[in-house]
Amino acid sequence: SAVISQKPSRDICQRGTSLTIQCQVDSQVTMMFWYRQQPGQSLTLIATANQGSEATYESGFVIDKFPISRPNLTFSTLTVSNMSPEDSSIYLCSVVLVSRTDTQYFGPGTRLTVL
Amino acid sequence: EDKVVQSPLSLVVHEGDTVTLNCSYEVTNFRSLLWYKQEKKAPTFLFMLTSSGIEKKSGRLSSILDKKELFSILNITATQTGDSAVYLCAVENNNDMRFGAGTRLTVKP
User: Fold this and answer.
1) Per DSSP, what are the bridge partners of residue A32?
2) What integer pLDDT is reported at residue A18 of this predicted model?
3) DSSP state letters, A82-109
4) How confident is the model at residue A32 (pLDDT cuts 50, 70, 90)?
5) Is residue B11 within 8 Å of B79, Cβ to Cβ?
6) Please, which residues 7-66 of chain B have a Cβ atom closer than 8 Å to chain A?
7) pLDDT at A39
8) Are B46 and B75 in contact (CB under 8 A)?
9) Which residues of A are less than 8 Å from B96 in CB distance?
10) Cβ(A5)–Cβ(A107) under 8 Å?
C-alpha cells in the first residue's frame, strides 16, 4: 500500500478566497486524481493530475476554478478558487501505484467549509 | 490511529453465487460508513450507513452496519459478471474520510 497525506486536513474559509490543498505520496505512482465528496452526493472525479502538463478535467470542472499542479511523481496540489458555500466538501487525492496498477488508494481527505 | 480494513482483498466466484464483503473500522467521531463500486474511473456510490442494525437494500445488493462491533458487510446475491469490480468502504468522521484498500470481486460466467 501507500501512505498518502493531505494538507490541510480541514479548513474553514470565507467566500471569494482560495485554498490550496496538497497531496504527498510516499511511493512512486503512475496516476493521481482529485475527487470531491459533497454532502449527500456521490464521490465525483474532478480531474486527473498529469505530471509536468495540464490536468485533465472532467465535465463540469474547469482549470480556472480548480487549478492543479503536479511537479513530480509523488506530489500534487489542488486549488479551489474564488470559493462559494457550494464548494464546501471533502476533497480527496487518490493514486495508482507503480507497484500495483489495479488498485486506487485514497488519501484522508481535506474537509473544506466555506462560509 | 484511524483505520479502515476490508476483507477479503480479492474474491473470485461464479455467476449465481452470493458474496459477503467485510469492512471493519477504528475511527474517532464516526459519522457515516459508505460503500462504493469502482469499475473504471470514479467510484459509484452504493450505500451510506449511519445507524446500526438497519439494512439498506438496492436490488441484489444490501448492506448493514454494526456500530458496536465496528463493522459493516456488503452482500451481493445472485452475482452477475457485471458485478466484477473493486468494492470500496469509506468511513467519514468529523475531520476526514478514510478509505479501505478495497475488495476486488471477479465473477466468472
Assistant:
1) A49, A95
2) 92
3) S--GGG-EEEEEEEEESS-TT-EEE---
4) very high
5) no
6) 36, 38, 41-45
7) 76
8) no
9) 6, 9-10, 90, 108-111
10) yes
Cell representation of residue B4: 479502515
Q: Please give the grid coordinates belonging to residue A43.
A: 464521490
pLDDT, one tens digit per residue, over B44-78 is 888 889 888 888 888 999 999 998 999 999 999 99
Helices (H), chain A: none
Grid look-up 467510484 returns B43
State which amino acid sits at residue B41.
K
What 3-state DSSP class applies to B81? helix
| B42 closest CB neighbour out of A9, A35, A111 | A35
Which of the two residues, A95 and A99, has the higher pLDDT score?
A95
Grid coordinates standing for A44? 465525483
Among B41, B46, B94, B99, most A C-beta atoms within 10 A, so best to mutate, is B99
Q: Which of B36, B43, B98 sits opposite A108 (nearest CB)?
A: B98
